[in-house]
Fold these 4 entries.
Entry 1:
Amino acid sequence: MSNSSFFRKKSIDQILKDIHTNEISDSHGLVKNLNVRDLTFLGIAAIIGASIFSAIGQASANGGPAVSLLFVFTAVSCMFTAFCYARFAATVPISGSAYTYAYTSFGEIIAWILGWNLLLEYAISNVAVAISWSKYFVDLLEGLGVHVPDYITMDYLSAARYHKMASEAVAEGKTFESLSVNLRDGFTAWETAPQLFGIHFIANLPALIITVLITYLVYIGIKESKNTNNILVVLKLLVIALVVGVGAFYVKVDNWSPFAPNGISGVLKSVAAVCFAYIGFDSVSTTAEECKNPQRDIPRAMMYALIICTTLYVLVTLVLTGIVPSHHLTGVEDPLAFMFHMVGLNGVAGIVAASAVIALTSALLVYQLGQPRIWMTMARDGLLPQAFARVHKKYKTPSFATIMTGVLVGIPALFANLEEVINLSSIGTLFAFLLVCGGVLVLDLDPENQAKSKFKIPYINARFITGGLLIIVMVFLKIFSAGSYDWFFANISGGEDFGNAFLMLCFLIIWALISFWSYTRSLSLIPVLGLIVNLYLMTQMGTTNWQRFIIWCAVGFAIYFGYSYRKSKLAVNS
């Protein structure tokens, strides 16, 4: 393939050779300090974060106890994807994660846009975690009798929106005290905020402060980050065990009926929040160059982390919805603490609030650890300025990339809205998962590539299964959910929900094409299923998120053609 092509690829042999060259070992050397336990704890730290202490509340309000099944379904999708990540990590043990995997399978332009979306995944995810951390930290201070002004704990958009909603509610005759906590806090923040030239100063300062502190910790070394994370994860797991163990005694089985109070549409409304819960498992692969035995330990750590975290998510969801009727969880930002307040266990609620600060700190650390290492790898390939590849001589960390990550997380965390951030992050994550699964299928078309990996995905021939599943799903929907067909045909012809119907049509066409390729190429079933499930979850993100995603990709392509295409080492060395 020509080095002038947009789809020029890096060979696996060249990547493996580069890892051992003097250029990397001397100028870009990272310290090999992580074992399988450390990697598993990194995965748990990333997965058990903002979702279990915050987003799980609104997800349960939308879908009821049935959200527990959505966690299982999404985990199965992640398990398929994890096999593909493990396959690549065992073949190409380098810090680029999905970006490097795409470079070897699809080519440079796809690798670039995936790396660009990984920036979205990690940076925006960390913004969400920082915002959640701020909420729990402020609640903890309030519990200790320390009041923090509302205008330095909330984003500008939320304060403006809540102020308007509260004002309208009071004008309609409602009392201020009868309004929700969010509306009251937003109204107070807007009214009490200092003003400059008529502009209200409202910003989430605790979110910025914790981002700065975590960025400093990541900057000074992987060993320090690892040890801190391991301690935080142990504490987090102990508290979740407390939540499940104590909460189980207060579960009322009647609260699980109906299991899906808002139907399947209510459950699917929580797709973004549930997908957001799992975005961290792929961060394990970004530490490949700091692992003692990446080809053995990264696949194991991914599987261990997914199994442990899925079990915990399901148990916590069932306990939460068993104690608190799901409709009472609408708008609740600290559902686990709220759950124990409902049954009069205020002491346990205080412990949960304190532990949430610990849990979110560890999640923030892992995301902040992963992003600079992807940028470092992209800079090595010439797609980003060489400053991003700089490794600190003393601390052996990607110094400039770490600082830039702190800036790109800390500043938006001051002003961003949590719900919007979660939705935007989830679609970028699923895009990365999608390409990793597809990349394995492309890579394994060459038998020589299969021989270079120490991790083998169990091979099941998808020749008849992929198409058979499509037929079964279509027949099932026709028999048991005829309304789905009515909705589709009513909207695909120009109805109000045309955008979502069009996304579903595209999904079905791509599934049919994958079925054809599975039949003609005898593809491996596990990556095929990962491809289909991740694509389906992307269709459930809604047209607004797809529009933002397309705009983000368009900006990425502009940067690629304006800078990266010419500066790429594959182009320079040709």
Entry 2:
Amino acid sequence: MESIDHFSHQHPLVLVDQEPGDQGSRKGFCSGCNQAVLEGYCYRCRKVAEGYCSGCEEELEGSSYGCGECGFFLHKKCAELQTDIINHPLHSEHPLTLRLNRYAFNGCNVCSKSITFFYRCDSCDFDLDLRCAMHPQFVAQEFQKLQHFSHDHPLMLVEDIEFQTKEGVCSGCREPMYKSSPFYCCPNCVFYLHKKCAELPLKVNHPAHRKHPLKLLAKPPAHREKCSCHLCTKSYEGFVYYCSVCEFDFRAADAFLHTITAEIHEHSLTPFSGTISFVCNACGTDGNHACFTCVECNLIFHSDCTSLRRTIKIIRHPHRLSHIYFVQDEEEAGKRECNICHDDINLGYGSYCCSDCKYFAHVNCAIDEDLLEDEESKLSDDLIAISPAFQQIKPGEIKHFSHKHNLILGGVVKDGRSCEGCMRSIPTSFYSCAQCNFFLCKCCVHGLPKKVRHWTCKHLRELFFYSIFHCRYCWFWSSGFGYNCNACNRIMCIQCHEILDTRIVNIEGQEHFLFFDHKYEGKCNGCDDYRYQRSFRCKDKKCNFALDYRCLVLPETARYKYDYHALKLTYRDDNDLSQCYCDICEKTRDPKLWFYHCANCDISAHPNCVLWKSPFVKLGKPFRIDDHEHPVTLVKIDFYPPKCNECGKPCRDDLSIQCTEPDCTYIFHWDCYREHKFPWVRTFPRVLCLLHRD
């Protein structure tokens, strides 16, 4: 069979005439973490999904070169790419060289996409992905050029290539370029303009300012201290229409708002010339600037509210919400609580509601971009329906995705074993495997579906089972079950899933309930840490009490190796500050912060000293990893600890990964192992380290 030696792979690549292997349902899944991936690439494991080209990351079709041993495949056209391009139309100054490392690629200078293969000029820091480098429009130089007043170089019209990432913004309107086509760009300067922004007229006459024409500027006037649009009062960047005589300005996006139609209203709306103080009928908040009015209905609107949608879908509620101007039902009239911020809503003005559930929300709360469901995803109710993670074999016997053997309901638990899924003590009702001493509590089996839509995320989450993973909410290392969002690269442990699923939390000793505030920024009253934003806070703003995820998932009781009794989580210490010490680290404690206490032994300690970073990690369970031949396990060694293979220090009291073979000296501190095996975790903190079970 025909084969080639390619610079991107260590083994010869053999030509095959069809898609390699029997992909079946495995197509589109990462061979490393076994999770479905987006656009053919897994950012956690840095691997291309099965059934995709390892060069351009597109689906494999027709002839391809591949290495079956490594699962590495290239389209025939990708394998035969020329390694150097001289005088490319988009960069004729220097030759472009084909490169391999995706993580040395900042993104294509035209479409911002990142893929494994790309062409690069090191002298100019210029990159092109394969699609743009080989696109017929660019190769044939059949593209329109525009010399725009806002940029020194000619701009190139890109007509049928979509912008790939949400980071790039248009220099005119400062809106994202994501999925935008056509658009103008300057590849050498990484400068972008939407086509509509590039073609804006240089002068306009606007009905809100009839004295003088408004001139288009590339950026706000330098002498203005505060630059805000006279129509919507928003501060602005980018293009602006400006009258230098009157110091009057509009954002370019608002300059052409004359008589308009709005989705939330049946009549045309007319801009009001001048500035007045008013209460917007659409959202119920004040305004003191230009506005739109409906003469027939005697309604007045903010300019932003004219773009409100009649119905929306938010991630906090399962049904669509409809916009209303006021509540006609006398029983519902008056004031209600917003189910997002829990402040009162004046139902005499506009709000969003679900009439079936009596669910109300402020307009500005409901349209927050963090809460609005992504309309592009169009996830149907069928996709978010509860899908069990197990298959019923017969009454009392199941096949669960997390274990290779069947599990049987009932049995005897010895030695205080815990559930493999949630790391809690085994209750009276559980499933077990007689061959492996594998236990799952009934709650984990029946209460955790394989796929869910959680209200903290816009995407579908999938249940997985690993030896150790990092929860991106409480920041604890955990074992067992967790819900993964592949789109966000965020994993949620079961503890956080249960806490957040309640939405409202009651804390012992706290008068008011706590609700989830995704905009909260401040310190946590449990640990006095400012790191954790998006916390649960008290409805009463005068109370100013808030808790982060980490404190909310702290176990009510915990054990420390030098105490026979369980330590209880305590929320306040009435002793004087001079008498508050941690009996583990021997440092002072703040009596206002949470701590663990044993009343029998009069021992108190910081939560971090008792739990360290891994209170939910399963110790002693053997599993396999890619870089060692024997099974390994996670351990904490108290006496006679061996030295870490990486740093050379004893592995005492720290979470470590150790070989299960008695004669093998393989052992690493867990932190040392992550830095040794996954040095890129520091550079790309969203990428998580996952280890495979045997």
Entry 3:
Amino acid sequence: MSVDSRIAAITQRLIERSKPTREAYLERVRKAAAQSVHRSVLGCGNLAHGFAVCSPAEKQALAGDVVPNLGIITSYNDMLSAHQPFETYPAMIREAAREAGGVAQVAGGVPAMCDGVTQGQPGMELSLFSRDLIAMAAGVGLSHNMFDSTVYLGVCDKIVPGLMIAAMTFGHLPAVFIPAGPMTTGLPNDEKARVRQLFAEGKVGRDELLAAESKSYHGPGTCTFYGTANSNQMLMEIMGFHLPGASFINPGTPLRDALTREATKRALAITALGNEFTPAGEMIDERSIVNGVIGLHATGGSTNHTMHLVAMARAGGIQLTWADIAELSDIIPLLARVYPNGLADVNHFHAAGGMGFLISQLLKQGLLHDDVRTVFGHGLSAYAIDVRLGENGTVERLPAPETSGDPKVLSTVDQPFQASGGLRMLSGNLGKAVIKISAVKPERHIIEAPAKIFHDQSELQAAFKDGTLTGNFVAVVRFQGPKANGMPELHKLTTVLGILQDRGQMVALITDGRMSGASGKVPSAIHMTPEAVDGGPIAKIREGDMIRLDAIAGTIDVINTADDFADRLPVSIDLSANEFGMGRELFAPFRAATGPADQGASVFFH
């Protein structure tokens, strides 16, 4: 089925807007690819250093220009659950590469930090910038020019976006992303949230809270809620960087290992040495990016990707905007209910039919571009499958089921959970912002209330403990943007504001910071741009100003002021406390160079 005419029109506008930068990008990619096998440009001393620790057979193979060499970029560390499974992947990949007649080497490692560990801590102020640092670290590993193809081992919040920026920067090389999968289901996410709320109210102690958290985050793999990490996996599959069905298979299972071996062999099959050359920069185009945005809307994915997708697209010369994302949101129905947008976790989502069912539903209604290239070949319809372990430990793929395994978790295009996507853009006299409404009750889509001003999330938490957060209000938490302090997630506000909302108060949040990919039931206008430190309108708000947040109309404004709001001078505050400690001093150049949130909050693209 051909793609919906509205999606086709948005895609065509994106193509036209991107033409100058996309053409320049493709010219660079094709020039690099024209050099053929890249080891051939290395001198004998260069090459000897590059394969000094290889076996004699591998040295002989790499000395010529006919055996492909696979570069592995890994985010392995053994502290973080999502990345610990990657410890055994290089050995598995090397073995699979030998079986396919190739060689594989770990080209480099990249840092992987966890927002769950750093929530509310100074280290969170490094988190967003770690994305661009990851891209740079991957670039260092690949700069040795020893490789014909690449595989990227990454899962979580900033890691996959950083790795994709690297994959597009080295767009002359094929790139396959290999995930580790989610941990098995532990304590239900709604029960975890209940205990968190009881702790915030002082009704349970730290021991009870830690016990609940430990039962929720309990083993290898990604967290099971549908935050940024699992949104990453959805994106890599729907954009064609994963093999079909690879995203949500648990670590340490035979099928997970079979998919990793298959991905390795596929990465070697699509090099310039074969007949299916698929350089990443040519493979990912405007249609692929639009498919990613559509997947984000259809699943109620992470708000963080309103920044990450913009930066990822720009790495390939594609000028995606918040306006594109907003327009697609009006077209794409919400088909998944995964926590925090429901009670299920990603394991339940996968069991209900997962990515294969979701993609098949969207394709049937022309809500995805099928005519795209992927690492698996041509056409996204190859991803409308059910994956399982076949005979002899191989991967078997069957057509996606016609019906959902659990209609409460995964629905059809004909009976969506909501007619439009879960992400909206807001604009008005306060600037531009993003809001996630897939878990916000309809009666809270419009909030009109006086402002309460805070310059740190701890200030709001202290006000809550003091009992001063009474009545209806809009919490304005400002000076939290990328230039101010690295744009930390303000996840700890979710519980506090949720408690007040449950008490019957009408509350909302406005911030130039971020909320977690798991943010949910409280209406939150986030990523406000221009940010306060740049003199944005959010810095002009005064205590008691009436603010109207209208997620239906897509507006965010200060109203009924006694003066002309536009003529006010923005306030400024002392930000020196953000400059030192936990490595923050090392990231001063990033804070100085970063662009605004609507352009990806990147040091590269603005």
Entry 4:
Amino acid sequence: MKIRSLTAGLSVSEQILPSDMQAIKDAGFRSIICNRPDGEGADQPTCDEIAKEAAKHGIEVAYLPIVAGKVTDDNATDFNKILTEQPGPTLAYCRTGTRSATLWSLGQAGQKSVADILAATKAAGYDMGGVVRRIVNGGKTPTDTGDASFDVVIVGAGAGGIAAAASLKGRKPNLKIAVIDPADVHYYQPGWTMVGGGIFEPQQTSRTMGSLIPRGVHWIKSAVAAFEPENNAVVLDGCRVVKYGRLIVCPGLKLDWNKIEGLVETLGHNGVTSNYRYDLAPYTWELVNGMKEGRAIFTQPPMPIKCAGAPQKAMYLSGDAWFRRGVLKDIDIQFNNAGGVLFGVKDYVPALMEYVQKYDANLNFFHNLVAVDGPAKKAWFDVAKPDAPVERVEMEFDMMHVCPPQSAPDFIRVSPLADAAGWVDVDQATLRHKTYDNVWSLGDVMNAPNAKTAAAARIQAPVVAENIVADIDGKAPAAQYNGYGSCPLTVERGKIVLAEFGYGGTMLPSFPKFIVDGTKPSRAAWFLKEKMLPPVYWMGMLKGREWMAKPEKVTVK
């Protein structure tokens, strides 16, 4: 007997025996639901036999037999009713536990999010892919799926999604393409660091989504609830179904603000800010501009995160502003990094360390933010140094810039497309899914070991487009991705350390050293970041103009 927990009040299991009853009682269960019809197997005890033994141990038993593969909507309703009437915790069982898990999943539809239901059943070892449309439909069998069908469906209209759509349209104008995204506004997120440094205005970093979707591409303004890759289908909220010939998955990642206790309540107040949100980046500059003395903490969570340099960019631009105003000597800068190094590619560290020293910043490695009390101006960090027990430390602050923990979106993490860590599982060269050969992914959501930056998506989009076109034409993958990513580290107003690298930390500079030496602070790199990259993004990348992003051809050995 293997008991698997779905919630604090309900667990499911395979067939149980009367001899298991003492163990079931010892585990704290007060009731049982039998979902296996009597006589289904030659070796199973009847529900009456189970009930008689359970009664000796003070455990109630209910009988709701379900024929394998035939869980009806009414069955789920009845299961829920029994759960509310019986004393808990409850153990439900059938031959393997799948029918019991299915009944719970359908009964919880509309009460819990689809992602939460799928996460609970997946963690218990049960795949609810076969009933996902019913879960999305509030636990009821859909009567009209209203299917739409496209040659290519793209999930996510961020930098990667729109760029991929434009690149595909440029290669095959007659492709029927749909982009699925519920957002009204598209953001140029690399600009938020500059907003927090008082250089850009917020409105420079946003445009309406409708103005950016490529001409001839259908925009489905909806959220994705689940994937059915075996059926070449994407299930939307409301249980609408979109079918595809080929699928591109690029919804970005999830900023998990709630993972830090007390953070959500104080964001935007009490000196707590973040450049990772459009509405908070101006508050960063307000705090920096008004600060004359005190302690400023800048945090970085465990990897992976989007733009791994962004947390320290905020520190450098703030330090530069205080240096220019002559108040730096009265400000205590603390950079609390959950990791063990300042930057993952060692070639750029010496230049960055010069600025750490210039701003007299303290580097606190292995410090992970776990809680904050905004009104009290206190934060708590778990310090997990190698070969040492975890220690929780308290730090007071006057200003704190927070980079939130990040993960794959919930609907990706629980999908068949995800690897064990929740990211879309792709071949790192072709960006094609390892299991489903008509699925590709790019951007922050996939599991290739590259930096999660907009510059990476700019290179990835043509690779995906090239390989999808090759696939349509019946050919092998034509392009490969070398892991390129770029992080323009704004070390002071007017100078940038332009880090460009690929898989394994290999340096991949775009310019000759006499133009931009990426290992040194450069005014040319600042000009690129401030003046050139925004129009390259809006007018180049999102329009399918692959400037300096020509796909690298697959090497035939």
